[in-house]
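User:
I would dearly like some help making sense of a protein record. Take your time, and here it is.
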Amino acid sequence: MLNNVLAVGLSLCVGLASYPLSAADPDPGASTRQLIVRLKDNDLRRVQAVRRNDTVPELRLPDGRPLSFIRRFNRNGMVVSLPAEVSLEEARRIAEQLAENPAVASAQPDKRVYPAMVLVPNDPEFTNQWHLFEDTAGIRMPAGWGQETGSGSIVIAQLDTGIIPHPDLNPARILAGYDLITDPDTANDGDGRDSDPTDPGDATLANECGVGVPGEASSWHGLAVAGVMVAESDNATDIAGIDFAARLLPVRVLGKCGGAISDVVDAIRWSAGLPVAGVPDNPTPAKVINVSLSGVGSCSSEEQIAIDAAVNAGAVIVVAAGNEATDVANISPANCGNVVTVGAVGRDGNRASYMNIGEEVDLSGAGGDGDVPNADGILTLFNTGSTVPVADTLAEIQGTSFTTAQVSAVAALMWAANGTELNPRLIQEILRSTTRVFPDSSCDTSICGSGILDADAALAAALDDPASVFAAAPANTSGGGGGCALVANGSSRFDPLFVLLLMAAGLRWCRRGRKSGFPE
């Protein structure tokens, strides 16, 4: 009987490529020491002669180190041990080589799995963050945190009004960023482009942004969007951000009266680590680019070229569908290709009254809806200053900007959970394919995307078999736009917003052409 094992071992050894074992991934969930090997011959005698921890005769690595027998597995299989812990990526390479041998039916890493626990942070305002946990419209974040809470190696770029300090933001997680606003009047900080992304405020006077346009207080939009994504969590302070560890790259593109699309295009490139004339290279390229802004019109060629380049560089671009209650086909960059376009539902799961709708929307999230004082908005970080920063506070804010932020943060968690197998297209497809159904007929897949964001399901798919989502996925991707209704200190306003993408018809995705658009 042992001779049978020897014969198989000899044939197994022939096909192995030279893959030296390297140090295991520091994350134990992303490494293994075992493989599951199934033989084509169903005869159990091939493994019965070998006992636990014995060397499997002639089943060796290219450098000569042996594999150890652990146990028989389901009739014609066996679990074997490698000489040392290796990353899952390396274990997959070894298994692929084994599977090429005629004697082997299949081989795969014996990866670790863990209890699907629910994590509830101790932040005092978490109970008011309904968008994270409520059954109707919440994104099921506590269960998602049981699978992944984030990694400091992941960077989220935020194209927005800039950033200001807040007690619930960890300065160590805020990267240097850049101010890419070219026009000094728009920048409102005394100059044009520079290395300081601090938000000086974007308050305006009546008629300053056009005849008949009323003045508005500073929006602190960048701080509010950042709070949804990366406010410190489980620190017994204020609110819980969705990603516990990712670093934020603030990129200023919006100031007084909005911003220029030429600056936004440069910001997309720069955020992804691509060169921009006259600006130092970004040393920390982003894996996720949050674009919570929008403008009227079709996607311009310059927008699309920059988006495509950033995606090819490895970044997922998440864009707000916008808050003008119109067809997203007329809102960019939400209607550009290769972006994830995000819509919004209220706390009751109904389509948000302000949301831009259409086939370009990929999915929706909890954005809030309603009038003051019953706003049911997204609780996030804010400042009391009407012009310049004054005091730190929290505020409830509505809009697709904040659903965009939720999707961006979940995408960052997906990168952290399984960066070796994922890519921008896979993340887009997983986000769309793991949504849960809308609770009523106010939203359907023709106007609000595939469903409501489900962080738990998206992370489970990212960790399990991400490539399988392509079985029903379209060949191309496209995106969405933005806008937000802000409720704070008794005032209400709309600001630029967020991202979306594709559509589902029944159980099958279909592409309805490339989208175009232009951020304000």
Residues 1-26, 472-520 have pLDDT under 50 and may be disordered.
